[in-house]
Amino acid sequence: MSRVVRIGLVQSACTPSREHNVAQALAGIAEAAAGGAEVVCLQELFAGEYPCQAEDHDRFQEAEAVPGPLTELLAAAARKHGVVLVGSVFERRSAGLFHNTAVIFDRDGSTAGVYRKMHIPDDPHYYEKFYFAPGDTGFMSVPTSRLQVGPLVCWDQWYPEAARLTAMAGAEVLFYPTAIGWLDGEEKLHHEQYESWDTMLRSHAIANGVFVVAVNRTGREGALRFWGASVVYAPNGQRLVKAGHDTPETIVVECDLARIEWSRTRWPFFRDRRIDAFGGLLSRWGGA
């Protein structure tokens, strides 16, 4: 039996103006809903320019509580347009304690779930460990009125274990709000880096028999040129849609959740998992 859900992706280019960034996100939600979207996902930390290119204490002023003014705007948008909404915020949990957080709203504007990014990178121009504590929510599936949402965030997308545990929790679609791009001076690596990212997303869909949605920002911010290319993969690895690299786009794509059962009965990876032999995954390396 068909279980079609229309999912909207809002890929944007951010500016130094928080007011502008929030307004364009709300406009993107409205555009996606007008195009038939029942579920909408925004990019990572959509309300501002990516804060982690330098270790700057002033950037902590951009964080706010959850719930707070920004999540209230998102809740109102979900309620106004009758959509399930995945939003990404710079959360101030307490004095000196901050998270990179995805908040899921149901169609009535209620908060369905909160996920705090589990894997925190520390690379040139991605100094997230300076800003964010690792998440403590664990990997989850968030029940909503339209589907089971599997919230993950950006750097989480490189970890098969994160995708697996989220799928095992019951998620039907893995959502990755994302901020990833090319660094100046690495032009020779551009194609390889993008292809690796895209391959990982596709592999999560295939290995877990789920839909995968990644919504990445686009545009230049400092030394980073975000590569856009927001994408949706079906459980068999079919690419359903892909945004351009360099332009803001709002896309709506139909996802038939019945394909999950179809794929898992043809490729029964969950049936054949040797759970008796996976204890080594709890070690940092080599069983020790």
Explain how this protein is built.
The protein is α+β, with helices and mostly antiparallel strands and 288 residues long. It has a single domain (4-282), classed as Carbon-nitrogen hydrolase (Nitrilase/N-carbamoyl-D-aminoacid amidohydrolase), CATH 3.60.110. The chain is built from seven helices and 17 strands. It has helices at 18-34, 69-81, 128-131, 160-168, 190-208, 258-266, 269-272, and strands at 4-11, 39-42, 84-94, 97-105, 111-116, 122-123, 126-127, 142-143, 148-151, 173-178, 181-183, 211-216, 218-221, 224-227, 231-233, 239-242, 249-256. The chain has a six-stranded mixed β-sheet. Strand 15 and strand 16 (239-242) form a beta hairpin.
Give the quaternary arrangement of the chains: single chain
Q: Mean of the pLDDT scores?
A: 96
How does the helix and strand content classify structurally? alpha+beta
Specify the biggest β-sheet: 6 strands, mixed
SSE arrangement:
Layout: E1 4-11, H1 18-34, E2 39-42, H2 69-81, E3 84-94, E4 97-105, E5 111-116, E6 122-123, E7 126-127, H3 128-131, E8 142-143, E9 148-151, H4 160-168, E10 173-178, E11 181-183, H5 190-208, E12 211-216, E13 218-221, E14 224-227, E15 231-233, E16 239-242, E17 249-256, H6 258-266, H7 269-272
Helix pairs in contact: 1-2, 4-5
